[in-house]
Amino acid sequence: MGKFIILSFVSLLTSLPSFSAVPQEISKLMNKLGVFISYVNGNVYKEDDGTPCQVIMNPYGGESSIAIESRAYDLPVAHLDGAKKSVEDNTVYFKTNETGKRPGGSVCGDVTPLTSYSKTVEVSGNKLIIREKMRCLLSKTEIIQGCLVK
């Protein structure tokens, strides 16, 4: 009887949704060459847009952390552990738990207060987008970076 209870508990735990690894929707796009997509506040960021890219495991994160490797100055990353998954039309969304805070300050810098922040990973067909929205005390910024896999 005790073994049955333990096996039932283990079976229940393994059946619960978890992102201790990269979700299947994302893993199918990983390590394949693509074209980088880069927008800041709705404007194409010409220095990076259209250059080669690939979705990879984040070399500085855990087993559910991804990055878009490209020639962009900043490495776009998303930590998916605990992310909330939703599906709308043919797009899968992963809303992360990231706060925009970092040692000494936030994405707004070391002095300017961060008033709101969100990061979402969007997967649609062969395209992965990391959408980051931040509101600092005096400004509002939306950064969209992605990889359109060939």
Question: Describe it for me?
Answer:
The protein is mainly β. The chain has one domain. The chain is 12% helix and 45% strand. It has 2 helices and 12 strands. Strands 1, 2, 3, 4, 5, 6, 7, 10, 11 and 12 form a 10-stranded antiparallel sheet that branches. A hairpin with a 2-residue loop joins strand 6 and strand 7. The termini are far apart. Mean pLDDT is 86; it is low at 1-19.
Number of strands: 12
Helix/strand class = mainly beta
Task: Please state the CA-atom Rg, rounded to the nearest Å.
Answer: 18 Å
Q: State the helical fraction.
A: 10-25%
Give the termini separation: 53 Å
Count of the separate structural domains: 1
Sheet with the most strands, sense and barrel status: 10 strands, antiparallel
The number of helices is 2
Mean pLDDT: 86
Strand fraction equals: over 45%
Shape, per Cα inertia axes: globular
Element layout with pairings:
Elements: H1 2-15, H2 24-27, E1 34-40, E2 43-44, E3 52-57, E4 65-69, E5 77-79, E6 84-88, E7 91-95, E8 101-102, E9 105-106, E10 114-124, E11 127-136, E12 140-149
Antiparallel strand pairs: 1-2, 1-3, 1-12, 3-4, 4-5, 6-7, 7-10, 8-9, 10-11, 11-12
TL;DR of this structure?
The protein is mainly beta and 150 residues long. The protein has helices at 2-15, 24-27; strands at 34-40, 43-44, 52-57, 65-69, 77-79, 84-88, 91-95, 101-102, 105-106, 114-124, 127-136, 140-149. β6 and β7 (91-95) form a beta hairpin.
